[in-house]
Hints:
Elements: E1 10-11, E2 17-18, H1 23-46, H2 53-117, E3 128-138, E4 141-150, E5 159-170, E6 176-180, E7 184-188, E8 191-199, E9 205-214, E10 221-228
Amino acid sequence: MFGRSKPVVLFAHGGRAKRRVPRWLVLLLIGIGLGVAGVFFVQERVLPPRLSSDESTKLQAAYEKADSERIRLSTDLANTSKRLETALADRKRAVDESSNSKQTADRLRQDLASLVASLPPDPRGGAIQVRAARFSAEGGNLVYDIVLSRDRATPAKPLSGVMQLVVIGAGARGVETSVKLKPVAITVGSFESLRGSLPLPDGFGVRQAAINLLDRPDGKLLGMRVMQVGNGKS
Length: 234
């Protein structure tokens, strides 16, 4: 291709020789031109269109915004994961504490059941027995603390009813009388402890309290006991 060729000498006017452009240089220039044309063709027809300066700026801004959003989402995910781990730890701790509390409550209930079993039986018997009771008159109210139980042979299903307290004593005029207080709803399983207070009539001097246990207000009597107010003796 680049073999030697004898130069052709031409004589121009004035007697000077004019050299001919080498063939290899012509071919080289043609190849460069074809390469440039090929690159231009590929860029214009095959490759995606080139972006303008304004488009490049917008693309860069969009990329930076997307990257910032990605970083924010990664941070939010990390924070959410930490909160989830904390919530799971708190739930586990609550479950453990609840389990411990239930075990403690069960032990206390067993201890209370043993204590109730050691109390003297209700001499009057009944479906519901009054095992112990304590009353006191404070600030115009009858404060009560009563322990009830049922026969162990009865079903374990709780029995619902009402407690009707009837107070006996002297009224405002000094006349001996009895007064029914407001009924209290009760539910008794093997045993039940009742604590509370009920208002007394104005000027009423209470001496005794009768505990009436009924299946419903003014219904069937399930148990009954009369206690002294203040000393807890029957």
